[in-house]
Design goal:
The chain is an alpha+beta fold and 100 residues long. It starts with 14 loop residues before the first strand and ends with a strand. The protein is 25% helix and 39% strand. The protein has 2 helices and 5 strands; from the N terminus they run βββαβαβ. Strands 1, 2, 3, 4 and 5 form a 5-stranded antiparallel sheet that branches. 23% of the residues are buried.
Amino acid sequence: MSDESIFDGGDAPVVYIILGQAREETDGEPAPDVAVNILLCAPDEDSAVRAALEALAGQGFVEAELDRIGVLTEVPEDATFESAYSDALAGEVAVITYRD
């Protein structure tokens, strides 16, 4: 990926964070919900939600309920989120799962 922004006008990319729950399918039966946080860059909220759902499907999730969407305005201090933030800036969709 080049150093140029993927967004019109060369503006700094917007890093979205999406919170929700997702469900995998195991042996034909739905598994319990897994809490997820998804960080990604996108030109708008609709694109962010579509990319998040595609990323979840690519990781084997068959259902998702996305509860909240927001914009990160600074680099997170938590190491997990800092890494995911860097991945988002690099054009990746970072999915963080919270399993019991």
